[in-house]
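Convert to structure. Protein one:
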Amino acid sequence: MTRKSRTYPKSKSAETAHHDKYDESMESKLCKLHARVLCVGKIPDKYFSIYEKSQRNASSLKNKERADLELFDKYTQVYGLPKTHKNGKEMKWLTLWKMKAIHAFCLFIDDPKRCHKGRLMGLHQCKSSMKTLQFKQRVELVKVVTTLFTLMNVDGCRIGRYADKRKKQTPLYDENGHELLRAVTHSEIRDQHEFIWSSAITKTKYTDVINMLKLAGFFEVESCYVGNVEGEVIRHEMRLNGATAEEIGEIPRIKSVAAYKWFKESFINALLGVVPESTREMLRTSLDVAKADMAKKKLSSMYATHSASSAGFWTKKRKEFLQLLGLTRYPQGAPPAPNPYGDTLPELDYGWG
């Protein structure tokens, strides 16, 4: 009597192999390709080569080429060809290490529980441990994070912009003559999202994504308040014109400006902390080149903490902070005490650097 061959795997690794493999979704592939386009400013040449080959003889395409052609067709349908500057130059929004971080985050779309050794499970369960994030929520997370990365400073992971000379914005400089970073509003981020992804995002959906990142401990937002010096002038004029106390009181003494926003190092390390040494060296080189470019352009990674037309300064909107200082309102007048970093946001120590 012949012995039957074993129908089950001979090793534990072979038995559990199907748990480590999955079919990547088209949404994940599109996000990865779009991140590459935002990095190099154009669609990679190989997709055009495959398209030309398909026009000559479609039957000669291999399976991998057919998949790439399908991705190329879908990408051009959704996003079209990459945008360029008025002079025809390519628009590049991401550095190499940012693109690699986004590619790593795309694994969260299809495999949120096992990707990056489970370091993103807190984000997957940020709303409830019983009801995790849906597929479309994970896709939206990747898209919004990509948008934030296009506005992110290379050193410190702070979200902001420098003065736009075309809009006649006045640059703000530190004592060494380096231009300071300006915070951006949530409305500006949503406008950037529409430009980057060729599709608008509602305020409700955007707020929900930001809250998910904050609940997971990956993103921080600090409210910023400055003294309304112009309001004092307006109140004085109203007082001279016989306005009532109620009308004068409606003019705010404190006004808010764009909040400070930044990614925490736990998020960056979760994405890039497990990369191979060869990739890690490439990321270090990319970051060093970006920092050198900032130094050449005399750009600072610190936020501009003072308003150009006000003597006020920003503070956290927290009651315990006010009670600690013995204040009933937001502090006014004197600048904050200096510290080694130039502001009160934490400096990041990259675990992959």
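Protein two, convert as well:
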Amino acid sequence: MRRRLLVYSAPVAVVTVLIIVKLLSVVVAGRSVTSDYAERDAGAMAGGVSVLRVFNVVEPAKAHIAEGARAVLEDRLTDAEQQYAQALGIADTCPVRVDLALVRETLGDRAASRFATPAAIAHYEAARDVVARAPQGCFTGNDDPDPQRRDIREQAQARLDDKLTAMRTAAPPPPPPPPPAAAPVPPPAGAGGTPPDTDTGDRLNPGTGDPLERLQQILRDAAA
């Protein structure tokens, strides 16, 4: 009877151990990712992200958050936006909203610097939507211990509104520069810079008329 209980209870014990291993791996990987991010070591973060993707079943959003942070370090903001958006779809938390809003706002700033007004507006609107849907205290009225980050979060809504207004009323981008002037056409070969002959009196056909009559006139003038 005791042997049966051990056999039947073994799968439960294995699952429990696996869950504990996953939680411990998540803690280690989470700390490693956080440390690597603080040291701006995107390469080292890759290992921690891989561990999160494989073992993190309890909180799968953490893998997307870590991948988003690594993408930010590597200046892959479009990838970072996708990762944070997926994380937000899994776990709607304030830190994820803050990260996603800031990434989208930065994408808008970069588009604005390229005079890509429609793209800038789209990014700013997407960022503002994240801010507007956040719970009270996430942006407005937040208690972030870092003064600079607290101000950035506090002013997010007004800042995005100002940028949207500026984009919608901005002058069109400057026209492209005119094409370079064409190079002067070189003189025909053998011209040697000799000015054209303006004396057409002795030519056979300086203008109109019969060439033969003109030739006869020249000969008569010469014989006179």
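Confidence is low (pLDDT under 50) at residues 1-29. Residues 202 and 218 are 7 Å apart (CA to CA).
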